[in-house]
Design goal:
By secondary structure, the protein is mainly α. It has one domain. About 75% of the residues lie in helices and about 0% in strands. It has seven helices and no strands. α2 packs across α4 and α3 crosses α4. The longest helix has 27 residues.
Length: about 160
Amino acid sequence: MTMMTPTFLIPIEQMYNQKIHLRNSDIVLAYTFLRLVFGINIFVHGLVRIGNIPGFVQSQVGLYKDIAIPAFLIAGPAYLIPIVEFVVGLLLILGLQTRKALIANFLLMMTLMFGVCLLQKWNIASSQLIYNIVLFILLAGCSFNLISVDNWLSRRKR
């Protein structure tokens, strides 16, 4: 006895003519959750490194030892990475200065992407591209940042 899998036939015209309705409140909520999850991720990146910045800097300098770049060019930005991650992550969690925090994070990601590409760590570069897609979505969708300190402050000014 052969088992037949049920099939659902939908006329192709009906399949492509359906309208998708997105509720504004759902977009705001989805935006908020994405901002929070991303903010937590970035915040914890900084949090776990901020207590040992010299150790983090040394690990970064060690990664680039075989590349003809002076150590001070690696160490300088490396001192700032945990601090920027900590502050940007906290701002994103709070939804405070969200647009500026996202732009700062994009600038950090450009620096990190440059370094990872120098090391030819393409798997890490790929995951950083995902971070940048999330940054793009958050920055492009800033008008949905309604559950935030930014929105609360702007409403208080009116």
